[in-house]
């Protein structure tokens, strides 16, 4: 009996994904719920488990292929008998013609709303021997990079989508021939190509192609990077961490700086000194969405400032007890989240959205918290934040933040937000005008806390001040409502007792 492995539901608005890695190859035995492959959508990585126990048959969507929701990824022959053909083929490789053993490398599922990707890098060339699950190429979708592993061992016979090509979901990237015979030659060129052997020999799963590319560009070896992926697999983020750690070393030992300082003479012609780099699909999507937000909404920003004295004093008084009891640090975000939830009740239009000619008022607060990650800006959503305690909010923010940095957020965790908080202050921003996150009608921008002289009861005193910015959609939020909202946030933060009294 044959069971089909299909792309799972990826999220509310995600229609496709890219097959990043196959952990199994045709002929491998698989257990129920054992991970078969990994898909990458615009923002998250999705693992696909085996629905049954048996032997992996045909891989329909090879690494790098773009696939839609419910698209066929592979087939599994249930029971142990299905493994026999693989063993038979291994015992008589000469009798198996290359054409009969050819396996298509397909674009993996990309996500519910992603229909195409761009081939950014091929790690193999035509004629190269590849091992199963070895990274062949890397695709870029609107928001993420997707790695495509080899669905089977053999020889890369054909590349159908060269670098720079835009491919659609379920499109064909290349062809691997001689899947059975290709395993033997892999050991032969070990002396001629020692650099490629350690990566495959030390791990069951090859390093991420994007990581291999980043290491090559940075001049790093796998031994210099600590892998945090499955089975110690090195991910792109691991390379970035290694590079960040190495940046500090020249500062501590300036004597080594001259070794890397000399460069070739700079040409006088400006064009020769320019570097043209194609925008990633993620950056293209960010650019398009930001411009769409400006074109669609009537964005206006109102500003205020808040004296953080009381919040800081309250936090300093209780932070140790809070962390001891709840196991999480007491930060400023819980205060701002609580203050915004409080203000949204009084000014509900800031928590609403436009749907055609209707205004949809939300009687709940799903708070989006913008977070910067190595892959770009993501906005995980804290659902029903208005019903949460300070401890619950802090735990949710910490957990979502970690998952965001690790690239483990699901699409569901980043959808459905009704209002967003963006904290540019962590990067040192003193004042900015945040852009709306459609279809939301409001976003609060936090900024750097800075000591400034303020007049308090006729006297000049130094106070820790923060500028606040509320960008809102003027189509449904009037100036009075926007100003009132920001004033309520200010009042709640300057006197946190108001939150307890619901004032």
TrEMBL record:
Record keywords: rRNA-binding included? no
Q: Which InterPro entries is this protein grouped with?
A: 2-oxoacid_dehydrogenase (IPR050537), 2-oxoacid_DH_actylTfrase (IPR001078), Biotin_lipoyl (IPR000089), CAT-like_dom_sf (IPR023213), E3-bd_dom_sf (IPR036625), PSBD (IPR004167), Single_hybrid_motif (IPR011053), SucB (IPR006255)
GO BP field: L-lysine catabolic process to acetyl-CoA via saccharopine; tricarboxylic acid cycle
Presence of the UniProt keyword Acyltransferase in the record: yes
Q: Which UniProt keywords apply?
A: Acyltransferase, Lipoyl, Transferase, Tricarboxylic acid cycle
| A GO CC annotation given for this chain | oxoglutarate dehydrogenase complex
What this protein catalyses is: N(6)-[(R)-dihydrolipoyl]-L-lysyl-[protein] + succinyl-CoA = N(6)-[(R)-S(8)-succinyldihydrolipoyl]-L-lysyl-[protein] + CoA
Please state every residue range assigned to the domain named Peripheral subunit-binding (PSBD).
206-243
State its Enzyme Commission number(s): 2.3.1.61
Q: Which cofactor does it need?
A: (R)-lipoate
Q: In which pathway does it act?
A: Amino-acid degradation; L-lysine degradation via saccharopine pathway; glutaryl-CoA from L-lysine: step 6/6
Lipoyl-binding domain: residues covered = 2-77, 102-177
Question: Segment Disordered: which positions?
Answer: 254-274
Among PROSITE patterns, the record links this protein to: BIOTINYL_LIPOYL, PSBD
Any one GO molecular-function label of the UniProt entry: dihydrolipoyllysine-residue succinyltransferase activity
* Ranges annotated as biased composition (Low complexity): 254-269
Main function: E2 component of the 2-oxoglutarate dehydrogenase (OGDH) complex which catalyzes the second step in the conversion of 2-oxoglutarate to succinyl-CoA and CO(2).
- Family statement drawn from the similarity comment of this UniProt entry: Belongs to the 2-oxoacid dehydrogenase family.
Subunit note: Forms a 24-polypeptide structural core with octahedral symmetry. Part of the 2-oxoglutarate dehydrogenase (OGDH) complex composed of E1 (2-oxoglutarate dehydrogenase), E2 (dihydrolipoamide succinyltransferase) and E3 (dihydrolipoamide dehydrogenase); the complex contains multiple copies of the three enzymatic components (E1, E2 and E3).
| Protein name, as recorded | Dihydrolipoyllysine-residue succinyltransferase component of 2-oxoglutarate dehydrogenase complex
What lineage is on file?
Bacteria, Pseudomonadati, Pseudomonadota, Alphaproteobacteria, Rhodobacterales
What gene is this protein translated from? odhB
């Amino acid at each position: 009996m044959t069971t089909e492995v299909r792309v799972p539901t990826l999220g509310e608005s995600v229609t496709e994904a890219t097959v990043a890695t196959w952990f199994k190859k045709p002929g491998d035995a698989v257990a129920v719920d054992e991970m078969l492959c990994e898909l990458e959508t615009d923002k998250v990585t999705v693992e696909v488990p085996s629905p049954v126990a048996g032997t992996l048959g045909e891989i329909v969507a090879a690494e790098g292929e773009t696939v839609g929701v419910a698209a066929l990824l592979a087939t599994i022959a249930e029971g142990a008998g299905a493994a026999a053909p693989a063993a038979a083929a291994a015992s008589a490789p000469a009798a198996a013609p290359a054409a009969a053993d050819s396996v298509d490398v397909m674009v993996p599922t990309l996500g519910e709303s992603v229909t195409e990707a761009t081939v950014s890098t091929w790690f193999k060339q035509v004629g190269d021997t590849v091992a199963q699950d070895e990274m062949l190429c890397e695709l870029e979708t609107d928001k993420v990079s997707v790695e495509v592993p080899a669905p089977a061992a053999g020889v890369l016979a054909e590349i159908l989508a060269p670098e720079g090509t835009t491919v659609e979901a379920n499109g064909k990237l290349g062809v691997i021939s001689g899947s059975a015979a290709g395993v033997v030659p892999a050991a032969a060129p070990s002396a001629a190509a020692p650099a490629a052997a350690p990566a495959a020999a030390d791990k069951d799963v090859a390093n991420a192609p994007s990581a291999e590319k980043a290491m090559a560009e940075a001049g790093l070896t796998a031994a210099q990077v600590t892998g945090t992926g499955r089975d110690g697999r090195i991910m792109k983020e691991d390379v970035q961490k290694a590079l960040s750690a190495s940046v500090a070393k020249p500062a501590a030992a300036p004597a080594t700086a001259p070794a890397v300082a000399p460069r070739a003479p700079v040409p006088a012609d400006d064009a020769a000194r320019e570097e043209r780099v194609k925008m990633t699909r993620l950056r293209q999507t960010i650019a398009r969405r930001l411009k769409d937000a400006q074109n669609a909404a009537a964005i206006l920003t109102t500003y205020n400032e808040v004296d953080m004295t009381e919040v800081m004093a309250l936090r300093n008084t209780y932070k140790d007890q809070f962390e001891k009891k709840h196991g999480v640090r007491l930060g400023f975000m819980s205060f701002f989240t609580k203050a915004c939830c409080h203000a949204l009740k009084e000014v509900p239009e800031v928590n609403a959205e436009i749907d055609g000619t209707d205004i949809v008022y939300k009687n709940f607060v799903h708070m989006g918290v913008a977070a910067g990650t190595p892959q770009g800006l993501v906005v995980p959503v804290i659902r029903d934040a208005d019903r949460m305690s300070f401890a619950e909010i802090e735990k949710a923010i910490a957990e979502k933040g970690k998952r965001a940095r690790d690239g483990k957020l699901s699409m569901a965790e980043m959808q459905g937000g009704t209002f967003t908080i963006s904290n540019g202050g962590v990067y040192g921003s003193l004042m900015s005008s945040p852009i709306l996150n459609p279809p939301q009608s409001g976003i609060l921008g936090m900024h750097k806390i800075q000591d400034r002289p303020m007049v308090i009861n006729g006297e000049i005193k130094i106070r820790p001040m923060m500028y606040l910015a509320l960008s809102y959609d003027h189509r449904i939020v009037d100036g009075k409502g926007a100003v009132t909202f920001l004033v309520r946030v200010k009042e709640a933060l300057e006197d946190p007792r108001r939150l307890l009294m619901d004032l």
